[in-house]
Write a structure and sequence with these properties.
Elements lengths: L2 H9 L12 E5 L5 E5 L4 E9 L2 E4 L7 H6 L7 E2 L5 E2 L3 E4 L2 E4 L8 E2 L12 E5 L3 E8 L10 E9 L4 E10 L3 E2 L3 E2 L2 E2 L14 E4 L1 E5 L12 E2 L11 E2 L8 H6 L3 E6 L10 E4 L5 E7 L3 E5 L21 E6 L16 E2 L5 E11 L3
Antiparallel strand pairs: 1-2, 2-3, 3-4, 5-15, 6-9, 7-8, 10-11, 11-12, 12-13, 13-27, 14-26, 16-25, 17-20, 17-22, 18-19, 18-21, 21-24, 22-23, 23-27, 24-25
């Protein structure tokens, strides 16, 4: 039995929240790369790379529905309706005030207490190399205005790229910010080694300082001469906890405003494993990316029957800047979606490695 087959079996032994088993899909390419996805949360469950001599699981995750329900780290899930934080769950659109459900320190995180990560998505289309999930979020869902129709499409290409396409429409002005919350450990997700020795680069000249709750402070700040300068490849541990911003968050949990060239196809970020066998490159049409070094992962169930430790994986969440509904002055396109518009973005995770 392959690793993917074993995951299909173990994840469906117990029913999901609605009394029915989860539905899993595994995408493969001619090189032997395997990507497993699940309809609950439109979740990226597994990413297995065929390295020389062994298959390496590089995505943090679980292998049972019980543990999926226990984990509160959004591992591999599609998060929405609004990824990251909205201060006090309040925002205004065209003069109308809205109050949405809060779930972290009095703020709304990743869509609220019953976000898209906890819903069953519908499989709209499926091939050997792709799957498209759809979800309808009704008007008033956790306080968000408008009926939002969403689709998320995953595709595994022959050049070892996992491409995620996000699409949404609404019948009323609303805020939308979708992302995937995958955590990567390119050495191997279950080897109990942290991600801090990974080498990272981020194509950004500004980052967003936040308070202890992750809410933005005065605005964007230059990365120059700070611990947030990843314009040159840098070991994550090199400047970890290097200033008060990181000490507040127990590491990196901050958003970077990506260089405009990234929207035209330039690489937004890279991460390389300490053994140099795997490099991950991120490409996106989103304006920003949250770097999160898994600062609070301790106790999160893993696939080995135990639990992950802090810093077990790094998340590269492409999105709008946090609390964007309350900061129209920031130089990025609006996070407000109107009935005559389409929400359409793409993020690609390109894996480079030596196979058999």
């Amino acid at each position: 039995m392959t690793q993917a087959q074993s995951l299909h079996q173990s994840m469906t032994q117990t029913a999901a929240y609605d009394g029915q088993p989860a539905k899993l899909v595994t995408l493969t390419n001619q090189h032997g790369m395997e990507v497993t996805l699940m309809d609950i949360g439109a979740t990226w469950l597994s990413c297995i790379l065929p390295l020389k001599g062994n298959k390496r699981e590089v995505l943090l995750g679980v292998n049972s529905m019980e543990n999926f329900n226990k984990q509160a780290s959004y591992m591999g899930t599609t998060v929405g309706r609004y990824a990251n934080r909205i201060a006090k769950g309040r925002f205004k659109i065209d003069g109308t005030n809205y109050k949405v459900d809060v779930n972290q320190a009095g703020n709304t995180l990743h869509g609220g207490p019953n976000g898209f990560d906890k819903r069953r998505w519908q499989v709209q289309e499926q091939t050997e190399s792709s799957v498209t999930y759809t979800l309808t979020s009704p008007d008033g869902d956790q306080g968000f205005p408008g009926t939002l129709k969403v689709s998320v499409s995953y595709q595994l290409t022959e050049d070892n790229r996992v491409s995620i396409d996000y699409f949404a429409t609404t019948d009323k002005e609303t805020v939308v910010n979708l992302t995937n919350h995958a955590y990567f450990n390119l050495l191997g997700a279950e080897l109990e080694q942290d991600c801090l020795s990974h080498i990272a680069s981020i194509n950004a000249s500004q980052f967003l300082p936040t308070d202890k709750s992750g809410i933005p402070l005065s605005g964007l700040k230059s990365v120059k001469s700070t611990s947030f300068d990843f314009n040159r490849p840098t070991m994550i541990s090199e400047r970890l906890m290097g200033d008060e911003q990181q000490k507040n968050a127990k590491g990196y949990d901050h958003s970077f405003l990506l260089a405009e060239e990234c929207r035209a196809g330039q690489c937004a970020a890279t991460v390389t494993s300490p053994d140099a066998l795997v490099t991950l490159k991120v490409f996106t049409t989103k304006p920003a990316m949250q770097l999160y070094t898994g600062n609070w992962l301790a106790g999160t169930p893993n696939r080995s029957g135990t639990s992950y430790q802090d810093y077990a994986g790094v998340a590269l969440e492409t999105q709008f800047l946090p609390d964007s509904p309350n900061h129209p002055e920031w130089k990025q396109e609006s996070c407000i979606l109107r009935p005559e518009q389409e929400y359409r973005y793409q993020t690609c995770y390109q894996f480079e490695f030596s196979g058999d």
